[in-house]
Structures are given as structure tokens and as C-alpha cells.
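PROTEIN DATA CARD
Card holder: RBR-type E3 ubiquitin transferase
Chain length: 151
Origin: Citrus sinensis
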Amino acid sequence: RSSNAETDDGTPSFVCEICVESRSLYDSFDVKGCSHFNCTSCIVRYIASKLEGNITNISCPQLGCEARLEFEDCRLILPDDVFARWGLALCESALVGHKKFYCPYKDCSSMLIDEGEAIRKSNCPHCRRLFCVQCKVPWHSEFDCSQFQKL
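Structure generated from the sequence above:
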């Protein structure tokens, strides 16, 4: 990676291939196996947009480039919420093939895995509240699950 341009104060610069603005070379983000120049803020927005599209395997933003952005390599540039969202999305994508469901309590909604055990009630490991495993709703004892599922 090289850059022939300099800023007014003599520091090396480059033109971001996303926003097409001249930036200090210190503001570039290196993608392993890639020679494209992108500024850190554009890479952050790019990662966030990919996550919004449920994409976790994120490649260099330049068309045709097969270099991949590594989760851990991006830790220092990403805001905490974006880094956490990417980590959660990676964990969820690793569970392909498992029966996933979410805690029925709206203020929790943690992802859980149905391991196929014949249990009727369980506590969410995150919020610790009881829910009906058969119906995937907050715990009830007033009615039979089979009747509830017919409603």
C-alpha cells in the first residue's frame, strides 16, 4: 500500500475509494489481503449497513475484491453497539440448522435454542423469567398448551 499525495502539513494522504475525499494516511483502514484505500469512517458505515442487511461475512467494499474484513481487526474502529451487533450476528449465523426462538418477553427477546427436549416450562437464561417452552409464550398455568395453539 502506498500513497503519493501529501496533506498541506506534509503528512501522507490518500483519496478514500468510498467517499472520494482526501484523507490523512493515518485515517485509512487496512483490510488484510487488500490494497484499496478507505477511510475509517466509511468502513464503519459500510459495516453497519451490511449488518442491517443481515450480512456477517463482510468483504472489502470495492467491487470484485475478495478480501474479508475480520471481526477482531475491526474492534478498535467500531462503536461498541456496532461491534456487539456484529458479534451477536456471527453467533446467530453459527447456529444454522438449530431450532432458534426468542424469549417471549418483549423487553428481553434473547435468542434461545430448542434442543428438542420434552419440557413444558423453562427460565430464560438471560432475564430469568419463566415461559412455556411448548407455546413460546410467558408462563401460563390457566390453560392447556394444545388449546392455546389452536386459537
